[in-house]
Amino acid sequence: MSGPPIPKLPGYTISLPQSLGDKRLSKGQSLTYVNGYAREQPMREVKDVALRETGSLGQDTATFSPSKSTSFTDSPSKLPQWVENDRKVLRFYGFFKESVVESNIENHRIRKMVLYYYLEDDSMHVAEPKQDNSGIPQGTFIKRHKLTKEDGVSFFTPSEFNVGDSVTIYGRTFFLTDADSFTRDWYCANYNREMSEALPYPNDPVDNYRATFGLTRSSGNTTNRMDDFKRYIEARLGKPSHLLNGDKLRQFLEHNKRVLRFWCIWDDRQQMYGDRRPYVLHYFLEDDTVEILEINENNSGRDPFPIFLRRSPLPKVLPHNMTTVSPKQSKQDCYSPADIRTGTYINVLGRDFLIHDTDTFTKNWYMDNLGFTDEDLQPVEVREAVSTLPRSALPPFNGYGTLQDSLQNCLSLVPKPPRRDMHKLMNKDKIILRFTVKIVETETHKHSPTDLARRFVLSYFMMDDSIQIFEQPVRNSGISGGKFLERQKVYKPQSEDVYTYMDLYVGADVEIFNRTFNLAEADEYTYTYMENNKHIFIMADHEIMLRSLKAQAVGREDAIRTALIEFDKNGSGLLEQDQLEAALSAAGLKFTRHQAVSLTRLLDQEKSGMVRIEDFLKAVGLA
């Protein structure tokens, strides 16, 4: 007669060689790598070895026979089980019956559960779905580990589960009623077995009791708390009558933190000092209360009072015997979600509010619970046409100070300093264009020969478009020299525009305070800066000059060559800048003096101040 099996505890298991004649008692290598993953080889065990023999005292003989493992094993040709079955879980739905004593309502209870089987390590765990207000600690029923069968030795395998079967774990029997789609597909692929259809759960005595007395939480048109029999029993037991209207606790738990939001308008302009003001209306579903918040608009002239109506039930009609909202108003006399919709008016304590829009959650709630369509919840256009106010005309500039300073007196009561262009201040600082200028006569202003002989230096500051004129002192001229014009912005004649860099180039005339100055020449820095930034200084772009000369030279080739030869007095083939300008002017070509200077600087490669006639003809395409 064999004895009880040896328990699987530390110190009770043995590991001997396959044959007793094998004297290699060393522990072999058990850790290997297969396809890059660590794998543990099974240990060698002794087969059919007698652990106890019958002695002289009549002891029983017991032989050890290891149980055959029914779990999945790793084959040397594939990945380990924990890698191949990673994150693969079989899920079954079921229930078990729990006995209930000392209760006249039920003698047993049906408790639903979910059984999870992890294929990666053959472990299991059982969970019970949580129910609100069940009074039973629910959640994880059995923690995850390898569960043994009733014999206490072998472990559960996937082949022992099926819909409609029962499983006994630790003395408690679980009935399997359904499985998810992944589990059904996995059994078809690995065991070629189709599972049964889902089975219904048995009736719970508590559910029958609740249905009998109208306590079942159903989604019908009439709530259970409005059941006549229930209300009669509660009234007989002494429940106050004002609490029999509805289950406020259930309403709070089901609709907690659910708020319907509406945008509304109160137009009170028909009254004296009335106005059209926007508001936000919040309807709290948890207790059927309403609050109205005021939207603070910029420059509205009103103090920012955010709350227009404190949270409370909103009556449809204001009673005559009170001036404030009473919390004892009946539910039928107050506004409900069905009474508030887009495009309708509601009466807020004698004030008509127009509901013109809602948020996304409110629209979805109305469509899901009240059957409204998207067309019924379209927003109403409430924006009015904004009348453009006439712009006040600015007075003409009187010439004192600057135009920006005078403009500030017209824009604000307290004048502010005009804003400066920080980009130009940071990037154009210390960039000064200097020109040599002289006074020229006009038809309205005549000057003496002494004034016509005076030479000035005009400095243009790129950072703020200001101009300064300085006269170099000349001995025995009778004129002291020095600063001729303080640095300032100079306005064009009969205009509110100032002189900019586009108006300054060699050969241009500028009128400054009734005096006309001709820009005779510029310094080397000004020429170089203009040529490097020819995209803004058009007169310094020699390419535009050459294209213009080529277009004007069509049909005048002989006249241009004749004029160039006539001004070459010594026949050297070289012309100075003045001679080149005179020759082109004699040929009838139009250009500015600054363009001629830029062309001369381009063709004068030796920096001698002379231009070869041959180079010029090649440049204009006449060679």
Q: How would you summarize the topology of this molecule?
A:
Blueprint (H helix, E strand, L loop, with lengths): L30 E4 L2 E4 L8 E4 L9 E3 L16 H4 L4 E11 L8 E11 L4 E6 L10 E7 L20 E4 L2 E8 L1 H10 L14 H8 L15 H9 L11 H7 L4 E9 L8 E9 L4 E6 L12 E6 L32 E4 L2 E8 L1 H10 L33 H9 L10 H6 L4 E9 L8 H4 L2 E7 L4 E6 L10 E7 L20 E4 L2 E8 L1 H9 L9 H11 L4 H11 L6 E3 H10 L6 H11 L6 E3 H7 L4
Antiparallel strand pairs: 1-2, 3-4, 5-6, 5-10, 6-7, 7-8, 9-10, 11-12, 11-16, 12-13, 13-14, 15-16, 17-18, 17-22, 18-19, 19-20, 21-22, 23-24
Helix pairs in contact: 12-13
Kindly describe this structure.
By secondary structure, the protein is of the alpha+beta class. 20% of the residues lie in helices and 24% in strands. It is built from 15 helices and 24 strands. A 6-stranded antiparallel β-sheet has the order 8-7-6-5-10-9. A hairpin with a 4-residue loop joins strand 18 (455-461) and strand 19 (466-471). Helix 12 runs antiparallel to helix 13. The longest helix has 11 residues, at 542-552. It is elongated and about 135 Å long. The N and C termini lie far apart (129 Å). Mean pLDDT is 82; it is low at 46-71 and 218-226.
